[in-house]
Amino acid sequence: MLKEEYADRRNYLLIHQESTIIKIAMQILELEGVLAMKNISFRVRNFEKEKFLTFNIDNDAELDEELFVRWAQANSLMGMMQISIAPWRVLSDENANRVIAAIKLHESFGEKLVDLAKNAKKTGEPIVRHMAYEFPDEGLEEVSGQFMLGSDILVAPILKKGECKKRVMLPHGMWQSSTGEIYSGDCEIIIDVDMDTTLYFRRCS
């Protein structure tokens, strides 16, 4: 990739919509206090006009492999994905493969993410959106365990340790899950999940 092309793509992908991105990231990171978060601290860091959310783990904190996997899965369907340490260095082979699968999922959405970033640069519309942003008249203002990627991908990350079922609020319309099932919206559904699950839905209509 030419230096100019890389710089152009990087500029697109570094677009952050402050309020929406940070609120959603905080909701995911908090994980309702379940995933051994007592040794993790948060801060918002400003770099020029961009705002980033970072977190630090105390040196004496025991690594929670489930947290690592779920963090990667949640990030796989956001505008940017960053992992600061190679998963195969600190995780079991099984969990390292799960993180690698999340990275590959993010890569598969590359073209869509670039298009959303270009649109964000042009219009200011966020890449990652609160449910009520995309569906303002459906009573979704208090729904915090899921979000929209653009206008047609609903992401429902697993946020509780040991969670085997995920409750999802589907807006109106028809939705296809990441495993192929079709659902009619305007309802709440419960989906069986496991450690391999990165749950998302594509809007069909």
Structure class: alpha+beta
What's the total helix number? 7
Order of helices and strands: HHEEHHHHEHEEEEEEE
Question: What strand line-up does the widest sheet have?
Answer: 3-4-5-10-7-8
- Share in helix: 25-40%
Determine the N-to-C terminus distance.
Answer: 37 Å
- Compute the CA-based radius of gyration: 17 Å
Question: Low-confidence stretches at least 5 residues in length (pLDDT < 50)?
Answer: 1-21, 31-54
So what's the overall shape? globular
Beta-strand residue fraction: 15-25%
Give a quick account of the main beta sheet: strands, pairing sense, barrel closure.
6 strands, antiparallel
Mean pLDDT: 78
Number of strands: 10
Based on the model shown, name its key terms.
alpha+beta; 6-stranded antiparallel beta sheet; globular
